[in-house]
Design brief:
The structure is a homodimer of 452-residue chains.
Chain A lengths: L14 H20 L3 E2 L5 E3 H4 L10 E5 L11 E3 L4 H11 L7 E10 L11 E10 L7 H15 L6 E7 H10 L5 H8 L7 H10 L5 H12 L1 E2 L4 H6 L6 H17 L7 E6 L12 E7 L9 E11 L4 E10 H10 L3 E3 L7 E3 L7 H12 L5 E3 L6 H11 L3 E4 L10 E4 L4 E4 L9 H4 L3 E3 L2 H4 L1
Parallel strand pairs in A: 1-5, 7-9, 14-15, 14-16
Antiparallel strand pairs in A: 2-4, 5-6, 6-12, 7-10, 8-9, 10-11, 11-12, 13-19, 16-17, 17-18
Helix pairs in contact in A: 1-4, 1-11, 4-10, 5-6, 5-10, 7-8
Chain lengths: 452, 452
Amino acid sequence: MSKPTPLSGFPELLPSERVVERTVADSLRRTFSLHGFAEIETRAVEPLDQLLRKGETSKEVYVLRRLQETSEEGHAGMGLHFDLTVPFARYVLENAGKLEFPFRRYQVQKAWRGERPQEGRFREFTQADIDVVMKDELPFHFDVEVARVMAEAISALPLPPMTLRINNRKLIEGFYRGIGAPDPAKVITVIDKLDKLSTDEVAALLVTDAGLDDAQAASCLELATITAADGSFVEQVRALGVEHELLETGLAELAAVVDGVSDLDGDRFSVRAQLSLARGLDYYTGTVFEISMDGFESLKSVGGGGRYDALASDGKTTYPGVGISFGISRTLIPLIARGHLRGSRPVPSAVLVAVWDEDSRTVSNQVAQRLRARGIPTEVAPSAQKLGKQIRYAERRGIPFVWFPPTAADETVHQVKDIRDGNQVEADPDAWQPPTQDLHPTIVSTTLEELS
Amino acid sequence: MSKPTPLSGFPELLPSERVVERTVADSLRRTFSLHGFAEIETRAVEPLDQLLRKGETSKEVYVLRRLQETSEEGHAGMGLHFDLTVPFARYVLENAGKLEFPFRRYQVQKAWRGERPQEGRFREFTQADIDVVMKDELPFHFDVEVARVMAEAISALPLPPMTLRINNRKLIEGFYRGIGAPDPAKVITVIDKLDKLSTDEVAALLVTDAGLDDAQAASCLELATITAADGSFVEQVRALGVEHELLETGLAELAAVVDGVSDLDGDRFSVRAQLSLARGLDYYTGTVFEISMDGFESLKSVGGGGRYDALASDGKTTYPGVGISFGISRTLIPLIARGHLRGSRPVPSAVLVAVWDEDSRTVSNQVAQRLRARGIPTEVAPSAQKLGKQIRYAERRGIPFVWFPPTAADETVHQVKDIRDGNQVEADPDAWQPPTQDLHPTIVSTTLEELS
């Protein structure tokens, strides 16, 4: 076998890079669990008809077949999931009788899309999703809750600062109804083009495509410029003089969600009510979310979500939900590739136990076991080379401590050396403890300070 | 969408069942890390030519294509990995220049096989693999090390007792050479049939297929009966009076591996030198391992591995390795399905904070945040129902504690109730701590005692 080459769109990490991903995933899990979200995993495959319900992603689905499959029956009709929402909706329907509602769940798993790879966009990627799903009706306070949980989760990560942008479908649809727009959905579609077209071009489309007059168009564009870090957007909207019941509901909901995370707003995290945000608004029915990473706007959103009044339905019962997804690969792989993040070492070991000669390897193994028994990751030198070589073995792996068991000549004294400063002391394998920050590999952010 | 039905061979777990899988995976990770094994993940897909190098699994491979793929080029030629060894060997070759050798790695990931589903055999399953790989030459003591690490890892699991069976290819090949077998590989193939055929049938095949005389055949069969929990097998083999250099090496190696884990032999774990074990001996070159779960022999092996002198090779450099794989799905799914294992509750929450009325939900949220700040998983009641209903909400989820914030009438007193015994006490949200065993969901083994 000749040297294999990487496969475009299927990123893999070196051991020290995996430390970053593992640490981030564990941190997310911890926050989600603290808020009572249960973990589930769903299978990687779904029936194709489920995967293709959203027409626009159909071309991105990976279809499976068994190599020796003779007929088209077998697994024809199965594909890899392209997100965690479709499998979750199916899981809820399939297990509805065995779940307690409201059902809070988180899911950290891979998904696959056959799209063209580019920075932050992969064919295999890991996501972290939280959702709350209920039978029949889901109280609004869960919108505030999922925003809060994800805001806490991402602001705890050792990454560049994140911004959570929030809007509300009821707010903008109510506004468009309030000004007498004949087709509010069409207005939303046109306003959504603001990130690609000029304001003048969008204004013209609002007239030609959405049937607004010039004054109505101007009003819609003015609404889209409104953004605020707190509830002050409400007064800005009111100043536009439009009234509608749905608008009032949307204003109250958006203000409540923003207020629910505003105490986290700071160096690590920002919250913005942003009334131009139109993230798949045909799909969502109230709150919508989008997460971006400051300084990495080229990645576009690194997460998003919202409220859907029918996450799933079996015809008899409807299951409304609200949730947010965070792109772990989308966020981490570019940061790692650009050299901003790495693990402090490629091995878990905090200690290397030296071996004087192969006959005394058992002695070294026993020392290692005593350290491990107290939770200290430890490995034993692979061969009884000269001590200098054993120390260099540790250095190359970033293992901070080398342990010297007693030699035959002096049968009781253990010593441990911090190979970073050369400091060497006597130590008891049943009592010695490395500094907490040396115990496990951690994330090192090399140039993130400059970015934040 | 009508109610979906489960997909045969693709098991999914309910939230309380996922607690079991998560706890087991975390426990394995912890042991592997303590021994200095670094975690990696590999992509789910490999080139088909890599996956098909072992001819016998070709029919089980899932092949991928993109739904809208026009030509056969694109992803034709990609399949889902069916184990973690093929991807690991490829990863080592691809990243050889960036890895430090010896390279200890563990990997806990899903794999896929299109085989017929049965108890413990799935089309999607999770494995935990440890391996040590080296350039050119891998010292023998790593065979002892991986046996030790996996033995510690599995004996720490709250599962039925496990047995690690060990044999050595050099030992049996050396023995067959020592008795003058014309084709030792053929003898191994025939001896491997001992679990399907009678001793007499195997004896006949040793003569007709492997070219032995009756005395040689009897000698081989006698070797295969030898089993021991310690180094006493060496004397049993010597008593057969066969001499060969390779046999001596094999005896010494097997004795060393058995000795390296013998102190763990006990109620939770057994070690056996078993000289009939012929687990893919054409593939392995020295030590071979097989793990079984006591009382669940119908599952056959739940793990296995061994030494391969050429895990990978790029033509210039050869990478020998030694490793063991443990089947997480293979072990847990049958135990869960038979009702032996479950999580103590389906939610992480240790506390439910009651809500007096929707206006005071903020007060309840603040209590929850103070508990979470000290690492106590907490959720807030979904609605301000009567207290009895809120307590039943906790009961249905197995949440052990319900917290009552101060009412408007009495503004300072917090109370917390253990809903299992009804005991209710005043408590400070910044100081109260639940018993450690209630903090997180744990694994409950309902009838395992009877099995072990």
